[in-house]
Design a protein that fits this description.
heterodimer, A: about 180 residues, mainly alpha, about 0% strand, B: about 200 residues, alpha+beta, five-stranded antiparallel beta sheet, 3 helices, 12 strands
């Protein structure tokens, strides 16, 4: 079913919207959730929560790109679930590795709790991602947004795993330098 | 800021970037292929120059352009080589080619001219023309045939037959490569080569 038609179903408060979303984007959302949580049951719950969140968001939202709209919800819900589940514990999935890698980009363990500051950081990171060369940009997002494994990314782009790792290392160094320059660190 | 906050901040990346992330990378030619293409282009230029100085041949115009993103640089060359004129109905036997150095190339071979027109072949010998590649063959500004490849496919050969091509007629070959973006179609590179029939 066409995305516009699915969104229209949400706006009509027609529960067929959920069925259509699950049929078209269920696997996509599950892949994101599983990347974060590394557990099928938890990922499935996150996907179901995604449908509920989407149901509550539309209306008033009318997303232009339904896939990424759902993907962002799934990612947020999954990270929240991971945080609750893993308070003080180490888990499976890509989350641990991704967080370890991103530690390269930050100065210390200081927390910035301010929402405004978080919003500014989000905007800066968006600008940073846009500034990256095409391949680096895609690989960076596959790893740190979709949380794909390095093996999967290497297969998708036809590069060796070591090349992916070295590209990501360079990108993280660039991100750190960028955040320092922008005063976010 | 901690790593988790950084990871969460990444969740607000633009949708267009996220969509693009899962698309396949544009294909790049292997270095050796690039070198071979460059060498072939040099040969073509040299042949064209030799032909121009050694024979009475109509001048060819070849124009290449890239858009502002300058993602790919296209070079194009065209060559006429005079075949044997047996005095038959074929006024001239012309071979011509258009070559876009990147990302792919197509060849136009005019097999024969006659009073009624010409027959030619566009071929991209085993070259995959990806989504968005379009080849137009134009004659005196009027499109005589259009090849448009909207799906992944392989263009092996494309036959052209045109009429009303008296001696001196011009054939324009336009080779464009474009991509579909969120805002519409974006031309990556265009190669325009003008062929002109040699008067017997």
């Amino acid at each position: 079913m066409d995305d516009h038609a699915i969104v229209a179903l949400y706006w009509q408060r027609n529960e067929a919207a959920i069925t259509a979303t699950a049929a078209k984007y269920g696997k996509y959302c599950f892949a994101i959730a599983y990347g974060v949580l590394g557990n099928e049951n938890d990922a499935e719950e996150s996907v179901n929560d995604t449908y509920l969140d989407a149901w509550n968001a539309m209306p008033p939202s009318r997303p232009l790109v339904l896939a990424t709209f759902l993907g962002k919800i799934t990612r947020r819900i999954s990270i929240d679930r991971w945080r609750r589940r893993n308070a003080g514990k180490r888990g499976s999935g890509q989350m641990e590795a991704v967080l370890d890698e991103l530690t390269d980009c930050i100065a210390s363990g200081d927390n910035v709790a301010e929402t405004v500051e978080q919003q500014m950081i989000a905007e800066r990171i968006n600008a940073f991602v846009k500034s990256l060369p095409d391949a680096e940009q895609r690989i960076f997002l596959c790893r740190y947004f979709y949380m794909d494994s390095i093996e999967d990314i290497a297969k998708r782009f036809g590069f060796s795993q070591s090349k992916i790792k070295s590209m990501m290392l360079r990108t993280r160094k660039k991100l750190r330098a960028f955040l320092e320059k922008e005063g976010s660190l | 800021m901690n790593a988790l906050q950084l990871l969460e901040a990444l969740g607000s990346v633009d949708d267009s970037l996220l969509q693009k992330a899962y698309q396949p990378l544009p294909k790049k030619r292997h270095f050796a292929v690039r070198m071979a293409a460059a060498a072939a282009s040099i040969c073509l230029i040299a042949s064209a120059a030799a032909w121009y100085w050694g024979h009475s041949v109509e001048r060819l115009n070849s124009v290449s352009s890239t858009d502002a993103t300058n993602r790919d640089i296209v070079c194009s060359e065209a060559v006429f080589s005079k075949g044997s004129n047996s005095g038959s109905s074929l006024a001239e036997q012309l071979d011509s080619s258009v070559r876009a150095d990147v990302p792919r190339y197509v060849d136009l071979v005019i097999k024969g001219w006659n009073a009624e027109g010409f027959s030619a072949v566009v071929s991209g010998a085993n070259v995959t023309l990806d989504h968005g590649t379009e080849v137009q063959v134009m004659m005196n500004e009027n499109t005589v045939r259009l090849y448009s490849d909207n799906q992944l496919d392989v263009l092996y050969c494309y036959e052209i037959n045109a009429s009303n091509t008296a001696a001196g007629s011009q054939v324009k070959v336009v080779y464009s490569d474009f991509v579909q973006t969120d805002t519409g179609i974006q031309i990556i590179a265009t190669t325009v080569t003008l062929y002109q029939q040699v008067k017997p």
